[in-house]
Structures are given as structure tokens and as C-alpha cells.
Design goal:
Layout: H1 2-25, H2 52-65, H3 68-72, E1 75-82, H4 85-90, H5 92-95, H6 101-111, E2 117-129, E3 135-146, E4 162-174, E5 180-187, E6 196-197, H7 199-204
Length: 207
Amino acid sequence: MTHRVTDRWFAICLITGAVLVAVLSCNNPFGTRDPQKPDKITGVAIKPANSAENVIYNLQASFRSMSVQDYLNLFSDDFMFNPDPDDSVRYVEDFRSGWGLEKERTYAENFLQKRVTDRLEFLTHLYEYKAGDDLFDYMYSIKIFPAVDSTKVEETSTLDFYYVKGHSWIYLREDEEGKWRIYKWVDLDNMKEGAFITWGVLRQSNI
């Protein structure tokens, strides 16, 4: 009887030991894991388009990241751009038939690409809501660095950057989904000085 009990306890110890070895050799499903680094966040910090102020903010944000889709999301389907008086005369062929969303799309796709623009800096991004209206008085000044095109190396030195500067009225409205969009952009009578060009010239030169 004593031998049977001893043999039984010996067998139990062998089984228990085997189980412990198996468990210890595997990952504990209930144990804590080493913390993993989160995936790299890409893109730009675009705000929800639930206010006109957020849309104006997103104008700068989408330009900084050179994001075509984020930029185009700012505009309504019936968007129209009106250049300043000098630009409308100088580039009459481009602006006479109107500048709607399709031309804005072409311009954005051509300009907001690294093959055209290396980077840009907003020097001035000021806007003021006009009480009683759906428009913002917008002042802008941007420093633009063209991308280096190795296939077109010129012997003469060129500017490493240029400026886009001006004054606009930007009109916004809320759509059926509660999202605000820009439906009209009016460049005012901007003074051309030095190396500055207007946003109208920037648009016209990228279609």
C-alpha cells in the first residue's frame, strides 16, 4: 500500500513538472507585454470643418503639408475665384471664362507637389471675421522654395525662393452636412512690389 501511494505521488510530481516546463517555455497569455511604439503619424493636423474659423486655419495647414486633398476639401462645388483687377486684365484668357472648382483642382494638383515646390513658409496668415457677413478679411504672405529640378540646371543663378503676398476676401457658408466651405475667393487690388506675386498669379502660372 505504501509503495502504491509513493508511486502515485511520484507520477503526479512528474506530470506537474512537465506542465510547469511547458508553461514556462511559452509566452504567458495573461502577462504584460512590452509597450510598442505607436505608428508614425503622417499627414497634417486638419481641424473638423464645423466652423468657418477652422476652414481658414485648414487653408494654412493644407498648404504647409502640400496636401492636395485637404486643400480641395476647403471648397464648395460652386466655388469661384476672382483675381485682383490687374491680374484679370493681364491674364484675361485664363480668368475671362471664370475660375471654378475644376481649375482650382488643376492648380492644386500642379502646385502642391514636391516636384514643383520643395517647401513653403507662411510669414503672414491673418484673418478677421466681418460681422454681419459670411466673409473673412484675409492677409497672406508666403515664402515659397521651388523644388530643385536636376534635369534643368541653368548656368545663371536664380532665386532660391519667392514671395506670394496679398489681401483677399474669403466667403464661406455651411452646407447640409454642417460643414463649412469656401464658395468665393476675391483677391483685392493688391500692390505689386519687389519680388512679390499675388495668389492669382500663383494660380494662373500652375494650370
